[in-house]
Design brief:
It is built from three helices and five strands. It is an alpha+beta fold. The protein has a five-stranded antiparallel β-sheet with strand order 1-2-3-4-5. Strand 1 and strand 2 form a beta hairpin. The chain is globular, with a radius of gyration of 14 Å. The termini are far apart. The model has no long low-confidence stretch (mean pLDDT 92).
């Protein structure tokens, strides 16, 4: 994981309420998957298991900042259990959870989704010949 001062620099222009959401999500990711690789990108952060592959094949999740919310994204979200039916997204496989405020966020469900994503192995979808 990147040092917190690096994260704070990246978040400097975001509203404080969105910064709080990002920090909480980062804390969940670090707790659930301490060996995960963290990278920055144009809208936020991506997390993946380098030992399994790159950001797509071995993606855990993404944290994306938008002007009025944060998205917790999953590159393989279509394969995750979503009993509450809250994951959104038009792409075929990628799905996300929109978080509008820290107080209204379902942190337990965020944890469940990140945990499920940490257990997902894209190789289980591969056709073996």
């Amino acid at each position: 994981m990147l040092p917190i001062h690096h994260i704070q620099k990246i978040l400097a222009g975001a509203p404080p309420e969105l910064q709080e959401i990002v920090i909480e999500l980062r804390n969940l990711v670090a707790e659930i998957a301490p060996s995960v690789t963290e990278k920055t990108h144009s809208r936020g952060f991506s997390y993946y298991f380098a030992e399994r592959g790159g950001p797509v094949k071995a993606g855990l999740c993404q944290i994306n900042l938008h002007p009025d919310h944060v998205r917790l994204g999953f590159i393989h979200g279509a394969f995750l259990p979503d009993p509450k039916g809250v994951l959104q997204g038009e792409p075929r496989y990628k799905k996300y959870l929109r978080i509008d405020s820290f107080e209204k966020a379902d942190w337990d469900y965020c944890r469940e989704l990140i945990e499920a994503s940490s257990r997902f192995d894209v190789n289980s979808l591969m056709v073996k010949e």
